[in-house]
Amino acid sequence: MDDQRVNGRAGQVARPLEIWAWAMYDFANSGYTTVVLTAIFNAYFVAVVAGNTPWATFAWTATLSLSYLLVLVTAPVIGAYADLRACKKGLLAFTTVGCVLGTAALAFAGPGDFAIAVACVIVSNFFFCTGCDLVAAFLPELARGRNLGKVSGWGWSLGYVGGLLTLGACLAYVSSAQADGRGAAQFVPVTMLITAALFALASLPTFVILRERALPQPLPPGASLLASAFARLADTLRHAARYRDLRRFLVCIVFYQAGVQTVITLAAIYAEQAMGFSTRDTLTLVLVVNVTAALGAFFLGNVQDRIGHVPAIALTLAGWIATVLIVWAADTRPLFWIAANLAGLCLGASQSAGRALVGYLSPKARRAEFFGLWGLATNLSSILGPITYGAVSWISHGNHRLAMLITGVFFVAGLLLLYGVDARRGRRAALKNA
């Protein structure tokens, strides 16, 4: 890996070790989304905490939606604050502690402990999402424009390896617990402690090695830090016409990520409710899908810089549309497995490619702020997609196939919006207003 000259303190370069340390945060936090949101706690919430009531799936999606709403409101301001104070790393440490403690607290959510589960999911997911925005803002400091896709892909693929490690540890414990005759109410809480511990341990290289390259920016005379953060955000929104391609891509993200977030947060629920998978079956499925997701992120990250950011994302959205159609039609487990692994390839590729394109279109002086807007878009999608799925499932009396089919509309809308994005024009606008 070549050293990458950064757009920060003069003369500083990002060493391969530092890029690895940055990517290790993806490795660390992927256990949370894999175990809590995708594979174990979501299905446990529906079946055990909420007792498989007709509104259980909707309650899960509504809980997540509330946490994403909090992130949506705060992300742009936190990003602007991080730019002004050059304190991305300090804020990242704070959000990491919050997510780790919130995840560990999920161990106290047993059958009927609805309030505890809801509160802990909201807290842990809020800190998780805020941390994702902050760590993403380091990306343009570590790689030049032509290598953004490659470095983002490395980070995202390493993230899936971290998800695999955490999920594998949980699967080993679940298998042992089930062999001893213990039920979900006994073994799921322990998996939350495993996930929290591995997140804390694996994130240490990021805080030891990664450097804060940005410089604090001067405040207007007499202005407070918070007021300046709001003023910068207002300025970004007011002058959005300067970045019309980034603006259109953020709208595109809202739609296609609505589909992606639906798959992430409801995969285990769909597998158990629509396909009859057991907890062990679901964990095995997600374990394999994480492998294909890592491969997708790694290979598309390398291809993306050659074929272009927009064509790469368009390719993944076409794959997502095919995935939804196969899942909707699947009435056998082998066909569902094929769809799940295709989803894995698209999952890693689309998320890595989207993050790289945002970095490519962002002016260097507003990176954290623009990644805050990226977070705003992804968190809005995280409300739109899952809550739509939950509402359709509730209204249709548990018709998960119909809910999944409607999810495909988000990918179609994202693909249509993507065709209006000109990456080269957007890059010129970012450099002009740097």
How is the topology of this model organized?
Elements (H helix, E strand, L loop, with lengths): L3 E2 L7 E2 L1 H24 L1 H9 L6 H30 L2 H18 L8 H23 L2 H4 L5 H32 L4 H19 L1 H6 L15 H14 L5 H31 L4 H29 L1 H21 L3 H29 L5 H29 L4 H19 L4 H10 L2
Antiparallel strand pairs: 1-2
Helix pairs in contact: 1-7, 1-8, 1-11, 2-3, 3-5, 3-10, 3-15, 4-5, 4-8, 5-15, 7-8, 7-12, 7-14, 11-14, 11-15, 11-16, 12-13, 12-14, 13-14, 13-16, 15-16
Structure in words:
The chain is mostly helical and about 425 residues long. The protein has a single domain, classed as Growth Hormone, Chain: A. Helices cover about 80% and strands about 0% of the residues. The chain has a two-stranded antiparallel ribbon with strand order 1-2. Helix 4 runs antiparallel to helix 5 (about 115-135). The radius of gyration is 21 Å and the shape is globular. The chain starts with a strand and ends with a helix. Mean pLDDT is about 85; it is low at about 1-10.
